[in-house]
Amino acid sequence: MNKTQQKGITIRKLAAKDLPQVAIIWETITKKKDTPKRVFLKKQIVKEGNISLVAIADKRVVGYVISEVMTNSFGLDQGGWLKNIGVLPQYMGKGVGQALAHKLFEAYRQKGITEIFTTSQWDWGDLLSFFKSLGFDRSNFINLYKRID
Protein backbone atom coordinates (compact mmCIF):
# COMPACT_ATOMS: atom_id res chain seq x y z
CA MET A 1 0.00 0.00 0.00
CA ASN A 2 1.71 3.19 -1.15
CA LYS A 3 1.36 6.64 0.31
CA THR A 4 -1.53 8.67 -1.06
CA GLN A 5 -1.60 12.49 -1.06
CA GLN A 6 -4.81 14.51 -1.39
CA LYS A 7 -5.97 17.85 -0.01
CA GLY A 8 -2.68 18.25 1.92
CA ILE A 9 -3.28 14.90 3.65
CA THR A 10 -0.95 11.95 3.25
CA ILE A 11 -2.40 8.50 3.95
CA ARG A 12 -0.01 5.65 4.69
CA LYS A 13 0.16 2.35 6.53
CA LEU A 14 0.18 2.53 10.32
CA ALA A 15 3.71 2.00 11.69
CA ALA A 16 5.05 1.38 15.19
CA LYS A 17 6.45 4.92 15.31
CA ASP A 18 2.85 6.25 14.99
CA LEU A 19 1.55 4.57 18.15
CA PRO A 20 2.14 7.44 20.59
CA GLN A 21 0.37 9.91 18.28
CA VAL A 22 -2.53 7.52 17.56
CA ALA A 23 -2.96 6.89 21.29
CA ILE A 24 -3.05 10.65 21.91
CA ILE A 25 -5.78 11.06 19.28
CA TRP A 26 -7.83 8.28 20.90
CA GLU A 27 -7.30 9.74 24.38
CA THR A 28 -8.21 13.25 23.14
CA ILE A 29 -11.47 12.01 21.61
CA THR A 30 -12.50 9.81 24.56
CA LYS A 31 -11.00 12.03 27.28
CA LYS A 32 -9.51 8.88 28.86
CA LYS A 33 -5.91 7.85 29.48
CA ASP A 34 -5.87 4.25 28.31
CA THR A 35 -2.83 1.98 28.61
CA PRO A 36 -4.76 -1.10 27.30
CA LYS A 37 -5.50 0.87 24.11
CA ARG A 38 -1.77 1.32 23.55
CA VAL A 39 -1.25 -2.44 23.97
CA PHE A 40 -4.11 -3.09 21.49
CA LEU A 41 -2.47 -0.76 18.95
CA LYS A 42 0.91 -2.51 19.25
CA LYS A 43 -0.73 -5.90 18.65
CA GLN A 44 -2.74 -4.54 15.70
CA ILE A 45 0.37 -3.52 13.75
CA VAL A 46 1.73 -7.08 13.57
CA LYS A 47 -1.62 -8.88 13.29
CA GLU A 48 -2.15 -10.87 10.11
CA GLY A 49 -4.81 -9.26 7.93
CA ASN A 50 -4.11 -5.82 9.38
CA ILE A 51 -5.13 -2.93 7.14
CA SER A 52 -4.56 0.05 9.39
CA LEU A 53 -3.70 3.52 8.17
CA VAL A 54 -2.74 6.97 9.43
CA ALA A 55 -3.39 10.41 8.01
CA ILE A 56 -0.53 12.91 8.10
CA ALA A 57 -1.07 16.67 7.87
CA ASP A 58 1.11 19.51 9.07
CA LYS A 59 3.94 16.97 9.61
CA ARG A 60 2.07 14.92 12.24
CA VAL A 61 -0.47 12.11 12.56
CA VAL A 62 -3.93 13.71 12.63
CA GLY A 63 -6.09 10.63 12.08
CA TYR A 64 -6.08 6.86 11.97
CA VAL A 65 -8.18 3.85 11.04
CA ILE A 66 -7.72 0.39 12.56
CA SER A 67 -9.07 -2.38 10.37
CA GLU A 68 -8.50 -6.00 9.50
CA VAL A 69 -9.59 -8.74 7.16
CA MET A 70 -11.88 -11.21 8.90
CA THR A 71 -12.23 -14.74 7.56
CA ASN A 72 -15.23 -16.98 8.21
CA SER A 73 -17.04 -14.19 10.06
CA PHE A 74 -20.46 -12.65 9.52
CA GLY A 75 -21.35 -15.61 7.31
CA LEU A 76 -18.75 -14.54 4.74
CA ASP A 77 -15.58 -16.22 3.58
CA GLN A 78 -13.86 -12.83 3.91
CA GLY A 79 -14.98 -9.40 5.01
CA GLY A 80 -13.48 -6.20 6.29
CA TRP A 81 -13.85 -5.13 9.89
CA LEU A 82 -13.38 -1.45 10.64
CA LYS A 83 -12.51 -1.56 14.33
CA ASN A 84 -11.69 2.02 15.18
CA ILE A 85 -11.31 5.40 13.51
CA GLY A 86 -10.24 8.70 14.99
CA VAL A 87 -9.34 12.22 13.91
CA LEU A 88 -7.94 15.03 16.03
CA PRO A 89 -10.86 17.37 16.79
CA GLN A 90 -9.22 20.38 15.10
CA TYR A 91 -8.99 18.33 11.86
CA MET A 92 -12.56 17.00 11.91
CA GLY A 93 -14.66 18.22 9.00
CA LYS A 94 -11.59 18.72 6.80
CA GLY A 95 -11.75 15.45 4.85
CA VAL A 96 -9.28 13.47 6.99
CA GLY A 97 -11.76 10.71 7.90
CA GLN A 98 -13.05 10.57 4.33
CA ALA A 99 -9.49 10.24 2.98
CA LEU A 100 -8.71 7.44 5.44
CA ALA A 101 -11.93 5.59 4.62
CA HIS A 102 -11.49 5.83 0.85
CA LYS A 103 -7.90 4.57 1.05
CA LEU A 104 -9.13 1.72 3.25
CA PHE A 105 -11.89 0.85 0.76
CA GLU A 106 -9.28 0.85 -2.03
CA ALA A 107 -7.11 -1.59 -0.06
CA TYR A 108 -10.06 -3.92 0.47
CA ARG A 109 -11.02 -3.75 -3.22
CA GLN A 110 -7.47 -4.77 -4.15
CA LYS A 111 -7.88 -7.84 -1.93
CA GLY A 112 -11.22 -8.69 -3.58
CA ILE A 113 -13.19 -7.89 -0.41
CA THR A 114 -16.48 -6.18 -1.12
CA GLU A 115 -18.17 -6.06 2.29
CA ILE A 116 -16.96 -4.06 5.29
CA PHE A 117 -18.54 -4.08 8.73
CA THR A 118 -18.29 -1.81 11.76
CA THR A 119 -20.27 -0.97 14.86
CA SER A 120 -21.25 2.19 16.69
CA GLN A 121 -23.23 3.06 19.74
CA TRP A 122 -26.71 4.19 18.75
CA ASP A 123 -26.28 7.60 20.40
CA TRP A 124 -23.00 8.55 18.67
CA GLY A 125 -24.77 10.75 16.13
CA ASP A 126 -21.65 12.32 14.62
CA LEU A 127 -20.00 8.96 14.03
CA LEU A 128 -23.20 7.45 12.63
CA SER A 129 -23.55 10.42 10.26
CA PHE A 130 -19.94 9.97 9.18
CA PHE A 131 -20.47 6.27 8.43
CA LYS A 132 -23.71 7.07 6.59
CA SER A 133 -21.81 9.61 4.43
CA LEU A 134 -19.46 6.77 3.45
CA GLY A 135 -22.37 4.57 2.39
CA PHE A 136 -22.63 2.37 5.49
CA ASP A 137 -26.12 1.22 6.39
CA ARG A 138 -27.69 -1.18 8.85
CA SER A 139 -26.80 -4.79 8.25
CA ASN A 140 -28.72 -7.98 8.84
CA PHE A 141 -26.78 -8.57 12.05
CA ILE A 142 -28.00 -7.84 15.55
CA ASN A 143 -25.46 -6.77 18.11
CA LEU A 144 -26.01 -8.89 21.23
CA TYR A 145 -24.65 -8.14 24.69
CA LYS A 146 -24.29 -9.99 27.98
CA ARG A 147 -22.47 -8.84 31.05
CA ILE A 148 -20.84 -11.56 33.13
CA ASP A 149 -20.35 -10.64 36.77
Structure description:
The chain has helices at 19-30, 35-46, 96-110, 125-133; strands spanning 4-6, 9-13, 53-57, 60-73, 76-87, 116-117. With 149 residues, the protein is of the alpha+beta class. It has one domain (4-133): Gcn5-related N-acetyltransferase (GNAT) (Aminopeptidase), CATH 3.40.630. Strands 1-2-3-4-5-6 form a 6-stranded mixed sheet. The mean pLDDT is 81.
- What is the CATH homology-level superfamily? Gcn5-related N-acetyltransferase (GNAT)
The CATH architecture = 3-Layer(aba) Sandwich
Structural class of the helix and strand makeup?
Answer: alpha+beta
Oligomer kind: single chain
Name of the top-level CATH class: Alpha Beta
Low-confidence stretches: none
Q: Return the CATH topology.
A: Aminopeptidase
Rough outline: globular
Domain count:
1
List the helices and strands and how they pair.
Elements: E1 4-6, E2 9-13, H1 19-30, H2 35-46, E3 53-57, E4 60-73, E5 76-87, H3 96-110, E6 116-117, H4 125-133
Parallel strand pairs: 5-6
Antiparallel strand pairs: 1-2, 2-3, 3-4, 4-5
